[in-house]
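Tutorial handout. Part one gives the primary structure; part two gives the three-dimensional structure as tokens.
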Amino acid sequence: MIKVFKKLFPLISKFFKYKELAFIFVFALSLRILLLSISIYNEFDFLISDSIQYKEIASAISVEKSYSNSLQNLEHAELIRTPGYPLFISIFYSIFGENDILLITMNIIINMLSIYYIFKILIVISNRKIATLGAFLFSVEPITISLVYYVLPQILFQFIIIFLIYTSVTIIKGEIKNNPFLLGLLLAIGTMVKPVMFYIIIPFLVGILLYSINKKFSPKKIVKIMGMTIIPIILIVGGWLYRNHLIVGYPTISHIKAVDLFYFKAPSVLAIKDRISFEEARKIIVGDKKVWHWIKNNQSSSEIKQLESKSIFILLENYKITINIWIKGIINTLFGPGDGQFYGIFGKDYISKGPLGDIFRLSIQQYYVKWLLNEPRMFLLFIYNLVYLGILYAGLILYLFFFKAIDQEVWVSTFVLLGLLYFVLCSGGLETYYRFRNPMIPFMVLLLSQGWGHILFAHNETVKIEE
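Part two.
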């Protein structure tokens, strides 16, 4: 009976081989179901402003088969949000109905798959003990856990990143047959879910080319590999760029970059330069417009491109201020505890002044009353997030310190380090915060688990333990 069960369910059959993975799955799933129950009990609606936008676009797709702002604005084509996640929601709702609890349940399933593939990646590049450690650390990562309970693309996007890493690593290590089409497809789908993936396509293709040359593949094979990788990118991403070109006159991936520039980045630079408030600086750049309402209803306006160019000029002209704000944004993203993301789940309103900042703002007595006495659960979450950050960055430091001693494939380590660097560099700016750390987490976990693994499991001066 067990043999039949294994054949019918290959994924579950892995648990018979890796019992520790099964324990991690049970623990992680129980924790996520518990938090889902708590959020339902507290009547949390799983929505923030971005969630509402995604749902409105999904409704337009489902009802009118139109990629528009909403059912009320079908005449206005949507260019701020790329279609990956709204399409995902639309398909899900068409099958299961508009039930956000079920959608969050799907987030949990996707997140569990991410845990599985983190384990699989580490099995390929290190060993079973480190894979178990990495899967566990990823399963308890607080930012990812909190984002499971929002109607947002982060969990789906993170899974695409993890599966892209898994596919790339197994190809490099020779574990599976070369499948360049799948790599291109994952890059394309990832770009449609979150446009930040768009800017990694060219570096990724260059990496594939360099790897092929290094492996001394024949010119014919290199052309075939590059061609198969590019085909889904041209069809999906290229098709989306062409659609947008027809609407606005130039091939933009999304207006979100333009909004980021003239609504956040340029005003923050101008405010420091001219020593004025941020709102005054924003008004100088965009005038009296209610930007989000204006851009949703004028997505083909040439003024968007003009404002984008004007903002880029401000950033470049004041490059020292720009770099300073960018670095501060990266620091905020990397070291923000992230406990605030849990507040809605536990039935709490957003608290603008959290426990970290209050250490410097309040006296010991005031701090005790506000957090330990009145908000003990939120304080414990804050401590948990801080402890996890400590484990995370200690592991990364250990990885870098023992980099030469750790047995690793140079192409794999280069790929993971460059992937992490890319998302770190993308996380700078006034508007960034701990949620932007989410796409970095898979890369971080792969590295920190090897760093801690070297200390905890190393034998005979090597981290590689042959099974």
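Part three, for discussion. Residues 178-317 form one domain. The radius of gyration is 23 Å.
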